[in-house]
Specification:
Helix content: over 70%
Distance between the termini: 173 Å
Shape: rod-shaped
Radius of gyration: 49 Å
């Protein structure tokens, strides 16, 4: 029995000592575990920080300048002197072209309808009635008809000569102002080339003053010089399109005038024969 008690006492002492030993070692274990956790978190934070540094926040892109803004900047870069003169050529050329387009559209006549009305007037009221119909009709074709019928009393030959002569006058009226458009078409690129030459001279003067060939200096001078040429060519292209349209419109009107004049002469001959 004594031996059993002694064994129980030894077991209790041993258990108490082991518990104390474990209690003394547990702070070290906890501190070691905390240090391990901290080191692990630090290792995890380093790549996160690196990734965060590499991730660049998207910068808001600036809105691209519009066409009007680009043209304005290029115009200013080209210099106000020659670019202003080129712009003046464009404005004046467009003004003349628009005026000619309006005039030619108003001069367009429905030739078939006019011939039909003249023929009806000749049949019902004679030459005077046909003249009145032509006077009330707008356009060069009606004016030629009036001039031709005014010489009806002098014979068909005089009618033909009058139509040919007055047709030349009307053609001159249709071509009025075309020479100015042609002038601006030729003048705009020449002014552009002149601005380019003067700009190149200024660039070489700047190089001579600097005493060194700087790429930025040369590039800037050449850019300014070439902008005037580009402006002149653009103006010439725009005005050339209007000029070609006007020429085709005038040719169409002249052809209709000639065809209508022939039809009028035939109509007058039939009227004389029927009298």
């Amino acid at each position: 029995m004594k031996q059993l008690l002694s064994l129980l006492m030894l077991a209790g002492v041993f258990t108490f000592s082991s518990v104390n030993a474990f209690a003394q070692e547990s702070p070290e274990v906890e501190s070691d575990s905390l240090e391990a956790v901290d080191s692990t978190m630090a290792m995890e934070e380093e790549p996160v920080a690196a990734i965060a540094e590499e991730i660049v926040e998207p910068v808001e892109e600036e809105a691209e300048p519009g066409f009007h803004q680009v043209v304005k900047e290029q115009f200013i870069d080209g210099g106000p002197t020659f670019m202003g003169i080129v712009l003046l050529c464009l404005i004046l050329g467009l003004a003349v072209a628009i005026e000619r387009i309006i005039h030619l559209n108003l001069a367009t006549t429905n030739v078939k309808k006019l011939l039909s009305n003249v023929e009806s007037a000749l049949s019902s009221g004679g030459v005077e009635a046909a003249k009145e119909v032509c006077r009330n009709t707008r356009g060069p074709v009606a004016s030629i008809f009036v001039q031709g019928m005014m010489r009806m009393s002098e014979g068909i030959e005089m009618v033909e000569k009058s139509i040919i002569a007055y047709g030349s006058v009307e053609m001159g009226k249709l071509e009025k102002g075309m020479v100015w458009i042609s002038l601006f078409i030729s003048l705009a690129p020449m002014l552009g080339f002149m601005g380019t030459v003067i700009g190149m001279i200024d660039a070489f003067d700047a190089i001579a003053e600097a005493g060194d060939v700087s790429p930025s200096l040369v590039a800037g001078g050449i850019k300014v010089a070439l902008l005037t040429t580009v402006g002149g060519l653009i103006v010439a292209v725009i005005l050339q399109l209007f000029y070609n349209y006007l020429v085709s419109k005038i040719d169409s009107l002249v052809n209709s005038m000639e065809d209508a004049s022939i039809s009028l002469v035939d109509m007058l001959v039939k009227h004389n024969l029927s009298k």
